Amino acid sequence: MSNYYDFNSDNTNNNELSHYPILSDGPTGSPEPDKKPSKRSRNKKKNLAKRIGTLTLSAVLFGSVAAGSFQAVNHIYTANAPAASSGASADSSDSSRSSLLKTTAVSGGSGTNTGSLDVSDIAASAMPSIVAITNKSVQEVQNYFSQFGYGGYPQTQETESQGSGIIIGKNDTELLVVTNNHVVENADTLSVCFIDNNVLEAKVKGTDPENDLAVIAVPLDSISDETMSAIAVANIGDSDSLKVGEQVVAIGNALGYGQSVTTGIASAVNRTLSDSSSETGTGTDDSGSATYIQTDAAINPGNSGGALLNMNGEVVGINSAKLASTEVEGMGYAIPMSRASDIIETLMNKTTREKVSEGEQGSLGIKGADVTSEAEEIYGLPKGVYISEVVSGSAAEKAGISSGSVLTKFDGTSITDISQLQSLLQYYKAGEAVDVTLQVPGQNNSYEEKTVSVTLGNSTDSGKSQEENAPSPAMNNFR
User: Fold this and answer.
1) Do 331 and 267 meet the contact criterion of CB atoms below 8 Å apart?
2) Are residues 220 and 275 in the same domain?
3) Residue range of the domain that includes 408
4) Are 328 and 364 in the same domain?
5) 229: which of 54, 290, 343, 451 lies 20 to 30 Å off by Cα?
């Protein structure tokens, strides 16, 4: 006959087994139905029921408290881990970027960066969008004997220079890369090396020498599927929100050795430069209108055109210059994206051009001189090419261009000197119609802007190109 455990006994296992019924070793079964339970037995049952009810209620209360505590801890953790929670709700369009960049929560700080990334993560994410650019050109050099006044014909020599570029997008037929104008100017051939070391030829799409920017294009049909899967379009950031002291990363083809990574801080923003103090192509002027991001991240020859990134892995600047002085260390400069974006957009929409043969090149038919900074300051001349002479019967004369005007733009490209105009004309055929912007002398020594359409003539009509350097304009030219 089975018995229930007596909770009043002195058994040492009472606390451990109080909620379990203890069965005897005898035969199992229920009490005999015809035998009436004793009073003591009924009291035992009542006591057992009370204790079971008490334990059940305690378990329910304990479970409720535990569940509430778990929810509170989960809420506190979520509130203090914004990076993780925001990553879970990120838009699906950012999934590829999230898989490359590991973000960590930032505690405090008033900077604009929402996360602090490891430099290695930034490099891994950004390098597929950075390319190395090689510029090969043929230039005329004086021979050895001409240095001593014996005359002689100039000789041609092939030169090669290196730079960097940033993949910024593509259209239906081309992959587009932004770089510095001084990286690609005077190029006879341009080649682009991608992250997988595949090298392809590129063409100039548009240039803006005044701001030292250029866009080049690589035909999509020349890019293999393997290379296309290895490269990426850069993420563009807001350079206006960059603060002095924030960490930045520079990536580029330093010294032509291949892509390298340096890091530092934003030493200054909205910094102005003068041409005499920096190693730039053109890109800056004495008016102080062009501003740069200054950084102590190492910017070396070959870095030009590469990316300056914030700690979110976004491009905030295009590396352009370094201060060239033995007395100075750690002063590099980048064109801020806030200034470059609109210019890049315009250059991306230009027609991609190739150099034409010398016999087919177009000509304006002018002789001109560079407007010096002195003439610009003293006489109020606009920056550009001062037209000292218009050749009779030339395209310029037919378009109504007169001497004394200053040519400032050719087919939408800003012109700052005669050599730049000569280089640009190598991409235009005779017979093409282009818009030329001029500053024409007006009343009270002022200048008025005028745009004319010019149908280019043939550069071989007179046996040589008619765009020639004239002596620097004398003072009496402006009286």
Assistant:
1) yes
2) no
3) 358-478
4) no
5) 343
Phi, psi of 205 (to 5 degrees): -100, -40
Q: What is the mean pLDDT of the chain?
A: 75
With left for phi above 0 and alpha for psi between -120 and 50, is residue 288 left, alpha or beta?
left
- Three-point CA angle 424, 425, 428, nearest 5°: 110
Residues involved in catalysis: 182, 212, 304
Residue indicated by tokens 């610009």: 376
Give the pLDDT confidence of 377-412 residue by residue, as tens digits.
888 888 899 999 999 999 999 999 999 999 999 998
Task: Say if residue 58 is in the same domain as residue 36.
Answer: yes
Q: Which amino acid, 60?
A: V
| Ramachandran angles phi, psi of 8, nearest 5° | -90, 0
350 in any annotated domain? no
195: left (phi over 0), alpha (psi -120 to 50) or beta: alpha
Q: How many CA atoms lie within 13 A of 448 on its CB side?
A: 6
Domain count, the chain: 4
β-partners of residue 306 are: none
> Tokens 């008619």 — which residue?
466
Q: Does some domain include residue 322? A: yes
- Cβ atoms within 10 Å of 333's Cβ, excluding its own: 28
